[in-house]
Amino acid sequence: MAPVGKKLTGLVAATFTPLTPHGEVNLSVIGQYIDYLVERQGVRKIFVNGTTGESMSFSVKERKLLTDEWCQRGRGKLDEVIVHVGCSSLKDCQELARHAVEAGADGIAVISPSFLKPPNAVALRMFLQEVAAAAPALPFYYYHIPNLTGVHLLASDVVEGIEEIIPSFRGLKFSGSDLLDFGQCVSCNPGHWTHLYGVDEQLLAALAMGADGAVGSTYNYMGSTMNRLLSAFDKGDLEQARDLQFKMQAIILFAIKEGFNLAMNKQIMCELSGIPLGPPRLPLLPCDVSKACAVAQKLRSVLGEQ
Ligand SMILES: CC(=O)N[C@@H]([C@@H](O)[C@H](O)[C@H](O)CO)[C@@H](O)CC(=O)C(=O)O
């Protein structure tokens, strides 16, 4: 069983997956990417092969290569590497979970299968149990993202009694905006679970509800700003925390009006970090670069030169 170690808190960047211009996985920029997160954003925790990382568009073999590279390059630089191992196939999940152990990951997370969907919370818990059992020594997180999986079960129902069947369960990554459900998850926390919120533009509300930290895509390039928001909240300086959240929201709203999606998000990161992350993989289409540049420009004008 995973020991009840230090709780995962603070900001966790959900990484983009670097591709070559021809759409192949590009491991060669991962070292540079990690340095950028640590040195420029003050972010030392990452969530790899998640939604932002387009994991469901990659083969098991590619996901293993990515996991190996993030873990190896992150050693000594990052505090935590959490690997998302969710797939449609239980067997693939288990293979990736076992591989995450070999790679030296600090934890694993799993989304609900989304093509053939679990009929109820019990079925989803059973699925999660089978995956967790393949890597019982690793902290295990349920990744709740109902709008993308189409599985609209309450997370609070999914985690009910979960530690009885998954001793390594350590919390959840909640990428939904139902704060009633989120609050109920927090309220049943036995203390050693962590609740990471995943809607970056609403982080402050989730902190008030008891979030321990956050996982998100925008922490790749707004990590330093959002770290300041976390500090302000911890100090009880709500005025400062709101100011930072409102600025961040203004940037996201501007991006939404430009057609914000994962492809644009990746291109915004390219523009701001200078790291060639390549296009998204099909079925996503590359975004209009001028629109991503406009968002990057907006960000610089709202937050100051990045
Ligand atoms: C639907 C989606 O991609 N949500 C993002 C957010 O970080 C999101 O990009 C952000 O709040 C901007 O809307 C994360 O919750 C996803 C995430 O953490 C992941 O990549 O696994």
UniProtKB/TrEMBL annotation:
Record's Pfam families?
A: DHDPS
> EC class of this enzyme?
lyase
Q: Which GO terms describe its molecular function?
A: N-acetylneuraminate lyase activity
Q: Which UniProt key words apply to this protein?
A: Carbohydrate metabolism, Cytoplasm, Lyase, Schiff base
Localization recorded for this chain is: Cytoplasm
The annotated subunit structure for this chain is: Homotetramer.
Give the UniProt family note: Belongs to the DapA family. NanA subfamily.
Q: From the Swiss-Prot or TrEMBL record, give the protein name.
A: N-acetylneuraminate lyase
User: Which species is this UniProt entry from?
Assistant: Clupea harengus
